[in-house]
Amino acid sequence: MRRDDKKINPHFKEEFKYFLEKHLFPLLGIVKKSLTDSLLKVDINEGFVVQIANTIYFSVSGWRLFSLDITGTDGLTEDNIKLANRIIQAYLPISEYKRIGSGRQNSSYPNKTKHKTEYNVYRDSVCSQAIETGISYWIVGDQSSEYIQNFFSILKQWAVKTYEGRRVTMGFILNPDAKSTCICEYGNWLSFMDSDSAAVLTDCIHSVIELDAECNFIRHISASEGDRFDHCSLNHCVPLRFTQIVQTHVVLNKVGIFLLSNGDIALAKNRSICFLRRNLRWLNLSYEAFCNSLKPFFSRYAIQDPDLFRSIFSSILDVSFSHTGGIIALVGPCWTDPEGTHFDHSETLSPYDNLLIDDAEIPSDPHADAEGLNERNKRLLKRKIVQTLVQGRDFQHIERKLRSELMALDGACILDYSGNVYSFGAIIQNDCGASGGGRSSAARKLSAYGMAVKISADGYIELYINREVVYAIK
Question: Are 129 and 137 a contacting pair, CB within 8 Å?
Fold first, then answer.
């Protein structure tokens, strides 16, 4: 080892790796990836994050400390690289250890040996603080970032409060390029947000408040301005309920920030929902991250219909944000398991739920009593209603709102690789001894024959392939 190599504090390197893998990667949508150790001297002016060909390098103080192989993915966008650089810039001053030499730079961390649990909680809180500070830099730049950090702090307070017995929703458009003409000597919008009066203004779906970089009021925006709703095209990267506001107003450098009724905070940019703060963590909610996690699956089965991918993702967003819960699965044409053995899906999918067979193929029980016949009629009626609504269309050609409503039926939505609908609301017979909740067990079982996505009623999303979680917003 060269003498220069000793300049990097090994304790800092270990903590930095933890920060990247456990906190930054989920935000950037990097899944199932591990860093490779590196120690290469580079130009001191090189950014903290540099993407070269199929590799991302992470550098500090003129040293490339780690590399990440991104072969088989689309890598990071230029905007995400800027965000990552801002976040690392925010992390370095508050990390526990000095970057160069040895020893600690922040003595506020609890003693790891004596208070391990307290230490881990504090360490994660510092990492989360760096993420949020970096996002604030990314939104408005260095000079105004303090206002945005205070804005997030107040919004997080509202996330756990109620007003008149109900959870509060709020919506904002931050416009770093504007300067308010309504500056008040008594304070800015942050001061107003400290009062209960702020709870009744905006619902984040039909109305938002636009603020400048220092959180001064610019205007109130209503989707029904002029006593009419303006039409706009749907976007597969935006939940249906936010389409009007996001598509119309989250443009150029503007950023949409929405406090949801369950306490989540969603962040939108470039007409897309990109990040979500859930359970104290900022997570990636982008279409690119979802597709990157599925690329090996797409390649393996030569699935190439972009309309189908976009339709599946948009419906996942719609179900997640409506908190109805659901499962959507993509299975092979013969429901073939990984070993190539033909799978008799009648053991998992009831004929009543299989829309791709004729009614005549549904067996009847000649010995059924009145209760059994009544149950059969109920299931046949549900089948007929679903068939009437679907009208034999592929999933990607069913109207988007109807898709999300059908996915909310108790059970699973099952498609083949072309988007043909096997079922909506299929009750899956889970394996004996399966762990986890009913939706998790059903999604895990269906993923053995393709891929499956579980959306829980609280909005969590898990993508399963071959019974393993490969991507999660949780």
Answer: no
162 and 34 within one domain: no
Residue owning tokens 């709703």: 229
Task: Say if residue 404 is in the same domain as residue 303.
Answer: yes
Query: CATH number, domain at 264?
Result: 3.40.1700.10
What whole-number distance in Å separates Cα of residue 35 and Cα of residue 52?
Answer: 15
Q: What is the pTM of this model?
A: 0.89
Instruction: Choose the final residue of a domain: 76, 111, 137.
Output: 137
**Please, which residues bridge with residue 66 across strands?**
37, 58
Check residue 270 and give left, alpha or beta (phi > 0: left; psi -120 to 50: alpha).
left
Nearest Cα to Cα of residue 20 among 75, 82, 91, 119: 91
Q: Are residues 80 and 56 in the same domain?
A: yes
pLDDT digits (tens, 9 = 90+) for 104-157: 999 999 999 889 999 999 999 999 999 999 999 999 988 789 999 999 999 999
Same domain, yes or no: 305 and 451: yes
From 205-209, 340-344, 361-365, 404-408, the region with the lowest mean pLDDT: 340-344
Same domain for 177 and 218, yes or no, is: yes
What band does 44 get if pLDDT is binned at 50, 70 and 90? confident
Q: Which domain holds residue 296?
A: 290-473
Q: What percentage of the chain exceeds 90 in pLDDT? A: 67
Q: How many CB atoms lie within 10 A of CB 216?
A: 19
Q: What tokens were used for 462?
A: 């898990």
